[in-house]
Amino acid sequence: MKISKQIGKSVNRLEGHLKVTGAAKYAGEYDVPGLLQGYIVNSTITKGKILEIDESAAHALSGVVAIFSHNNRTKLPWFDIMYADMDAPPGTPFKPFYNDQILYNGQPIALVVAETFETARYAATLIKVTYDEEPFETELAAHLDDARDPKKGIATFIKPLPPSANGDFEKAYNDADVQYAGEFIHGTEHHNPLELFTTTTVYEGDGKLTVYDKTQGTSNCQIYIANVFGLHYKDVRILSPFVGGAFGSGLRPQYQLFLCVMASLELKRNVRVTMDRAQMFTFGHRPQTIQKTRFGATADGTVTAINHTAIAETSQHEDYTEVVVNWANMLYPAKNTLLDYKLVPLDVFSPMDMRAPGGSTGLHAIEATMDALSYILKVDPMELRLLNYAERDVSANKPFSSKELKQCYLQGAEKFGWANRKSEPRTTRRGNRLVGTGMSSGIWDVIALPAKAKASINKKGKLKVKSAVTDIGTGTLTVMTQIAADSLGIHIDDVTFEYGDSNMPLSPIQGGSYTTGVVGSAVKAACESLKKKIFKKAKKMNNSTFNSVALEDVVFEDGSMHLKQDKSNFVTFKEIIADNDGKKIKASKNNIPNVLKLKQYTRAAHSAAFVEVEVDEQLGIVNVTRAVTAVAAGKIINPKTARSQILGGMIWGISKALREETLMDHNLGKYMNTDLGEYHIPVHADIHELDVIFVDEKDDIINELGSKGVGEIGLASMAPAIANAIYHATGKRVNKFPIHFDQLL
Amino acid sequence: MHDKNSSNTANFSSNSNATKVQLHINKTTLHLHVMPWVSLLDAIRDHGKLTGTKKGCDHGQCGACTVICDGKRILSCLTLAVMKDGSEITTIEGIANGEVLHPLQTAFIEHDAFQCGYCTPGQICSAIAMLEEGKADTRDEVKEQMSGNLCRCGANTNIIDAIMEFKDKRNE
Ligand code: FES
Ligand code: FES
């Protein structure tokens, strides 16, 4: 039977049945015997010292088993390095319960462990803490003068600092026929995956733990826990088969993991610690960022000068950075550039990557500036992008490994009906609503990292592939299964992909849109090496007809191996394994990217978003009525799940432009809207017609699969396109996100 | 570490306050002995060991905990277990007919109406009961009446597509 190729097919999510029946188990849902429940107590001051923790009332409560704090914590290592996870920025990682110092508002300071969840929660409210408060600073806008260069570290490899200046920006800007300068203000955002951060720790005795954790990296948490608590790596097993969303919040081990493991080790019991929704606002976040742009262009629309600066907040203990200002010159080949990125350390927790970190911030400034220039020049906004189309990345002086952004513009515009647009702002109405359309380019890096995978095939001809990677809702399970099926030439039903387990081959944390490319390439490589082994065994078979042939002369398909020249000369995998005494054939591959080759190219996914908005003239309410995003992201392994990723990104764009922001009272240093009623994200009624196009793009450079990843690119272009459409509708350019009705009245 | 000694000065979780509650969940009767402050959500998840119903906020703000109680969709996090003594409750685990999926569940899979899947049980229970209410006809009305169920992954359009397909087929 001919088996159809899986790559490029819209396969339904393989875990779909489990998810629609409630059978999928998330970290807080494992029924383990004798489970104790932990509830976290957080600091109510922003900076200072804990003087006393009065636990007496809590202890007096029946059912309370233990209360942990810095006063009675486990012995912990001294050195910062022991607390550094795979995603730690340069600096000193936060160490829960380390001492009496309060570094930020909401810092975990105690953990109540009780027989029931309700008891732990109630007891936590009875704990009285006295502090010695110190003055603190949390407002970025008030400290722009303190901005300084970020410290460099390992993170700088993946997140390069801005390239140095080119040409003479000031002169070019002054000489430019048209200019636009803008200031762009972005507030804090929190990831708020729908699942609360939870850990269930199973105490296995003898310093051994099995931990169900909400994370984007099982290996990352394993290493962290082993280092912090002085355990052997092999004795710590982190499982994370289902993750209820993360969006970057699970890139680093969160403090509930630390607390849960500490309690479990101290009490020698099984423990669960779950954050509540307010606590979901007490760790990483998208940082407040203030940007300035100055772009200059000639009268015919050639952008000649680009100045883009950003100042972002970080914590006092780590230099978290994002790539905010590097994108403009990758998109538009101006000869004179001045790019700058600085940090202001404040008394907050370290910011953390949140879906399209940096890119979604920077592109708003870049694409709104380009939009503003187009109106000054009286050139169609898309035309201006095409006029300044970069065939080569001048910022790095490198070719693109592939770039079909032009097709994104053209196909997106066609589908959207961009050609019919009236160019003047504020010229279209529907009843009492102003209608406008806007567009934006999008760009996102393709990152290459090493990853490992194992593949084995058994006597029933079933292929099993393993990686420690997680599936945070991205479709990783399905996509990896598709890749494995095609790599070996086997039916998809005969493939199992096992994942979400630190016992499996090492995988990088899941993020940055690189998982499909990175882990997918490892899966492919493991299957390739399995093929070699199968081939060798086949040659050794009695009466083998493959004796004198080379690996290049055979084809693996339909569950068998046959001669390229003669399909009738074949042997099935089952036959080969039967001949191997029924023993499995196994292969393992550590896939290491060819950095020297990759370095010669700029590698990026691109997109173009086209958006229509309606703005109620009396109420200022904005509705995104329809949008099209065209994406060039190399090979799309599964168009169905990839489309969902882009749709998700587009909805995040709507949310970023119009809804979400964590508001802080800077007198208290405390976030004020820490629940899902006050932290606004779009609801079903806010979401209208959304369309996705994948543009054909071939890339032989980036990885074995030619796949660029789609997790963030859908968000990158969406939010700026909304801001631009609002300008077209109303004639008002609002450069502060989220855009609220009061700014449009 | 302060270990607990035996002198209980409060009987917060002592069994003397526990109340007997019978919940008919997914056609099985569950006999519970719960404290009056235990939410229906925690009763279902922790005591009933049915973890398909999700906790996203515990505040009535996300819809992840939606179950169908005596034919109506309710937020189980805003409901105490003791309030529902004797009620018929359907959770996500009771939506399929044995191994045969409910057509809305099939539509969710076909339309890729979930990513992480954490909002999914709530979306499905909410949609089924919402259609029973009979107040939503158009796509806009369905969106409006499903707006208590958040999806952070942004599966919104696919969720509504799945519900509309099921609704239209049902009316045929
Ligand atoms: S958990 Fe009940 S509404 Fe969120
Ligand atoms: S699928 Fe993740 S929250 Fe809806």
TrEMBL record, chain A:
Pfam family, one: MoCoBD_1
Endpoints of the signal sequence: none
SUPFAM superfamilies per the UniProt record, alphabetical: CO dehydrogenase molybdoprotein N-domain-like (SSF54665), Molybdenum cofactor-binding domain (SSF56003)
Descriptive protein name: Xanthine dehydrogenase family protein molybdopterin-binding subunit
MF term (GO), any: oxidoreductase activity
Species per Swiss-Prot/TrEMBL record: Subsaximicrobium wynnwilliamsii
InterPro entries: Ald_Oxase/Xan_DH_a/b (IPR000674), Ald_Oxase/Xan_DH_a/b_sf (IPR036856), Ald_Oxase/xanthine_DH-like (IPR016208), AldOxase/xan_DH_MoCoBD1 (IPR008274), AldOxase/xan_DH_MoCoBD2 (IPR046867), AldOxase/xan_DH_Mopterin-bd_sf (IPR037165)
The Aldehyde oxidase/xanthine dehydrogenase a/b hammerhead domain, residue ranges: 21-135
Listed Gene3D superfamilies: Aldehyde oxidase/xanthine dehydrogenase, a/b hammerhead, Aldehyde oxidase/xanthine dehydrogenase, molybdopterin binding domain
From TrEMBL, chain B:
InterPro entries, per the entry: 2Fe-2S-bd, 2Fe-2S-bd_dom_sf, 2Fe-2S_ferredoxin-like_sf, 2Fe-2S_ferredoxin-type, 2Fe2S_fd_BS, Aldehyde_Oxdr_Iron-Sulfur, Beta-grasp_dom_sf
Cross-referenced Pfam families: Fer2, Fer2_2
Keywords for this protein: 2Fe-2S, Iron, Iron-sulfur, Metal-binding, Oxidoreductase
Molecular function via GO: 2 iron, 2 sulfur cluster binding; metal ion binding; oxidoreductase activity, acting on the aldehyde or oxo group of donors
Protein's UniProt keywords contain Oxidoreductase: yes
2Fe-2S ferredoxin-type domain boundaries: 19-95
Protein name per its UniProtKB record: 2Fe-2S iron-sulfur cluster binding domain-containing protein
Species this protein is from: Subsaximicrobium wynnwilliamsii
Organismal lineage: Bacteria, Pseudomonadati, Bacteroidota, Flavobacteriia, Flavobacteriales
